[in-house]
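User: For a benchmark we're assembling, each entry needs the component sequences followed by a predicted structure for the full assembly. Here are entry 17's components. Please fill in the structure.
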Amino acid sequence: MKAAFGLTIADKLLVGLVIFLLLSLYGRYWSSATPGERFRVSSIVNGIQTMDFGADRIIAIEGPLGTTRLQIAGNRVRFISSPCHGKQCIHAGWLADAGDFAACLPNRISLTVLGLTKEYDSINF
Amino acid sequence: MIDCEQKPPAGKLVTPARDDLRIAWLAALAIAVHMVEAVVPSPLPGVKPGLANVITVAVLCLYGWRSAVWVAALRVLVGSLLIGTFLTPTFLLSVSGASASLLVLGLATRLPGQGLSPIGLCLLAALAHMFAQFFVAYLFFIPHPGLFALLPLLMTLASVFGIISGLLTTKLLAYQGALS
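Assistant: Structure for entry 17:
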C-alpha cells in the first residue's frame, strides 16, 4: 500500500475528474436563473404592456382600486406602492431574473420578468 | 437416440463447480445486503447507499469480472423477486444501474499500470450506476427537463456513497487477505 488507503495514480485522476464533473453539473443545472431582458405588466385597466428595463424610472399603472407604482432601477423592477390591503406585491421585492413574478391581486395588476427564452416559474403535472 | 451409457447417474445431473458454489455464496451475501438496504428507510426517496456494490467490487477484485457479473445479475434478479419488484420500473432501473456499473468496472480493470484501487472502482461504479438510472428514468418514466435539476445532487450523493463503499471494500479485502 502506497498511501493511507492505497490510492493509485488512476484513482487520483478519477477523483479529479469526478470533482470536475460535479462542478460542471452544478454550474450547468444549478446556476442562477437567466437575467431578465424585459418585463410585462398586466392590468385590467391598462391591458398588457411589455417594456424594456431601460432608464431608471417610476411608472404608474391604473387598477380598479387606484394607482400602483412600479420602480425600475438597474434592470430590476418592483412594486413600491399600491392601494391594496395586504401589500404582498411590495413585499415581493425586486424582480430581476427571467420568470420572476409578482402580482397585486386586489388592484388586478401582475408583473412578470421576461428573458430571451421563456422560463417557467413552476410546473405541475 | 440417447446413448444410455453416457447418461449420468441420478442425482448427479449437474455437478456444481467450485466457482459455481462460490458465486452462489457471494450472490446470497449480496442479496442479503440488498434486502437489508431495501428495508431501511432512506431520508431521500429513491436514494440508497448501494452497499451491495461492496460485494460486487470485492468479487471483482478477488475472482474477476465474470464472477462479478454473475453475482450482480443474481442479486438484481433474486433481490427483485424477493422484494416484489420484478419487471416493474424499479427493476428496470436496477438492471440498468447494475449493467452500467459492471460495464465500467469491466473497462476499468483493463486499465494499464496499477489501475484503480477498490475505492476508485466503487466510485466509478456508483457514478455509472446513478448516471444510467437517471437516464433510464428520464427517457422512460419522467421525460421532463426539470429532472436535470436533481442530477448534480444525485451525482454528489453517488460520489459520497461510492467512496464509502470503496473504504468498506478495502476493509473487507484486507480482512479477507488476513484470513487466507
